[in-house]
UniProtKB/TrEMBL annotation:
GO terms for molecular function: transferase activity. This is Sugar transferase. Belongs to the bacterial sugar transferase family. It comes from Actinokineospora xionganensis. The chain crosses the membrane at residues 12-34. Keywords: Membrane, Transferase, Transmembrane, Transmembrane helix. The keyword Zinc does not apply. It comes from the Bacteria. InterPro entries: Bact_transf.
Length: 227
């Protein structure tokens, strides 16, 4: 975890320098198209339940509530350009700036909204917050990222149980491919060589009530089902 934190600070700072001009260009385009302030922020929950301010580029209609969930077809991109940014997760680029500040990791579970807006199972919620939340992760590059993150808990728990620095590097590579080509992954696409000892022990996950979300090792890199 110490090495992971060091990588976050160094690589995160370098990425922030690269990302800032890209974000400014996209923001200028969005401001012209939407005729409103191109950024918005809301609260997300980080490691150990710490609440943070979460910045994004505005891609939804200006009158959309900031805590609107993806369920029910209520999240509608303002136009085709905005829809493209959302599909490639480019609207999330401002979040990279939180990494050098230590508020986010480059790779980790997706920070969820507060319980008032996104209620979840207590065991699921507590277990995934045992590690730093990430700008990208298995769910973010996964085939089911169009759904709510808690509807596909296997992505997060696979990372908790089998994560490693190798997996982090692979996820960052696949994130770049997602930006460029739009290609996503399933759990059985995760190569076996990136599987590690994990960031949280199964005993700890069970202790906080997350036992039913545990993912068997056979679900990774085996063309097995994603639950």
């Amino acid at each position: 975890m110490f090495l992971k934190s060091a990588i976050d600070r160094v690589v995160g700072a370098l990425l922030a320098v690269v990302v800032v001009p890209v974000v400014l260009v996209l923001a200028a385009v969005l401001a012209a198209r939407l005729r409103t302030w191109p950024f918005f922020g809301h609260r997300r929950v980080g490691r150990h339940g710490q609440v943070m301010r979460f910045p994004k580029l505005r891609t939804l209609r200006p009158d959309t509530h900031p805590y609107t969930l993806k369920e029910g077809g209520t999240v509608i991109a303002a136009d085709r350009f905005c829809a493209f940014l959302r599909r490639r997760h480019l609207d999330e680029l401002p979040q990279v700036l939180l990494v050098p500040l230590g508020k986010l990791s480059l790779v980790g579970p997706r920070p969820k909204m507060p319980e008032r807006w996104e209620p979840t199972d207590p065991g699921y919620r507590t277990a995934r917050q045992l590690v730093p939340q990430g700008c990208t992760g298995l769910w973010q590059i996964g085939r089911h990222a169009h759904q709510m993150v808690h509807h596909r808990p296997a992505y997060d728990f696979c990372y908790l149980q089998y994560g490693s620095i190798r997996m982090d590097l692979w996820i960052m590579w696949r994130t770049l491919l997602l930006f460029v080509t739009g290609s996503t992954v399933r759990l059985d696409d995760v190569p076996r060589w990136v599987i590690g000892r994990g960031w949280v022990s199964e005993q700890h996950i069970r202790a906080v009530g997350g036992a039913r979300f545990l993912v068997p090792r056979t679900a990774i890199g085996s063309k097995g089902p994603t639950r």
